[in-house]
Amino acid sequence: MREGILLTIGNTPMVELTRVFSHLPVRVFAKLEQFNPGGSAKDRPALHMIERGFANGVIGPLTVVIESSSGNLGIGLAQVCSYYRLRLIVVVDPKTTEQNINLLKAFNAEVEMVSEPDHATGEFLPARIQRVQELLKLYPDSYWPNQYANEYNSGAHQQTMREISMALNGKVDYLFCATSTCGTLRGCAEYKREHGLKTKIVAVDAVGSVIFGGEKAKRLIPGHGAALVPALYQTGLADDCVHVTDVDCVVGCQRLVHEEAVLAGGSSGAIISAIEKYSSKLPPDSVCAAILPDRGERYLNTIFNPQWIKQHFGDIDHFWKPTSEAYTCASAT
Predict the structure, then answer these.
(1) Does residue 173 lie within any of the structural domains?
(2) What digits encode the pLDDT tens for the residues 198-219?
(3) b or e along 281-294 (b: 16 or more beta carbons within 10 Å of the residue's beta carbon)?
């Protein structure tokens, strides 16, 4: 039975973005997942996977929960496990920010750092999963939620789509959803199918991600995209897909905070730029929902840091200016 802080997970607010897309003949409503207590949409699957673990008997009071995560899912699990007094070990890699590591530790999670990428792929994810497997053998009473394949991850997001549909009285023409583990995408798609919604789901993926068949390449902005196709992915989950660059994410975040006073993370910026890129396909008077996955405070040293932006992208003013209504999608030039 949920109680305490766990009761505040889900039922996040939706607000209409009246300024950032004022030049488009559509309405866009943002689902602000940053209002979850752990700060992101990942709180939902973190809670659902632990709850189902208890219900299925794979988690007991002495079970050690072990997961691979470099960001929000780890933080969500850390909060849930802290509340249930469960020991949690989170396997991270050098790309994990110092702030996220400190947040994990604040919730009493133990942090295991994988220092070298997988030799075969050059990626850190397989190396992290290998370390998870080693730890599972070390602790006989242990549980791996496995966010990459656990259907309770995607199952949690059926509630996300239900909330969106109810908030908009069932009138959702388009849903824009960032992809990483594909948990959010799959959960929303499954709810859409089961309830006969006519919503077109547009997946927002990163240039350099392989989820929708792109070529693998280096990416700076965490939170969306993947170097491996997640086990939760299924053909047909999305009706369409938009790929966005790292600089698109930065520009989208800057537009959100300057035009809507919404300080959100990199994948939220990806959503904003994706809607702009996709806008020519949106019929007039369309009602669009956009899931903004997390809050922006965790990106103050990167996406909202002028020196970091200049170091990695140079001058981005030619893509967007706060004083102008004109906007050029960064990757379109």
Answers:
(1) yes
(2) 999 999 999 999 999 888 888 8
(3) ebeeebbbbbbbbb
Instruction: Give Cβ neighbours of residue 317 (< 8 Å, ≥ 6 apart).
Output: none
Q: Is 240 helix (H, G, I), strand (E, B) or coil?
A: strand
Q: Which long-range contacts (CB under 8 A, 24 or more apart) does 321-325 make?
A: 322/254, 322/258, 322/259, 325/22, 325/23
Q: Looking at the chain, how many residues does it have?
A: 333
Residue where a domain terminates, one of 143, 174, 194? 143
Q: Are 111 and 80 in contact (CB under 8 A)?
A: no
List, for residues 154-175, the tens digit of each pLDDT value: 999 999 999 999 999 999 999 9
* Domains held by the chain: number: 2
Same structural domain for residues 61 and 29? no
CATH number at residue 132: 3.40.50.1100
Is there a single domain that holds both residue 163 and residue 234? yes
In Å, what is the CA distance from 246 to each residue of 237, 269, 278, 316?
24, 9, 17, 12
For residues 27 and 29, give the distance between their C-alpha atoms in angstroms, rounded to a whole number.
7
Domain boundary among 117, 143, 169: 143
Contact 43, 79 (CB under 8 A): yes
Q: Residue 238 and residue 9: Cα distance in Å, rounded?
A: 26
Give the CA distances from residue 166 to residues 32, 171, 184, 260, 291, in Å, rounded to whole numbers and listed in that order.
Answer: 15, 9, 17, 23, 15
> Is there a domain that residue 294 lies in?
yes
Residue 326 has pLDDT above 50, yes or no: no
188 in the same domain as 92 = no
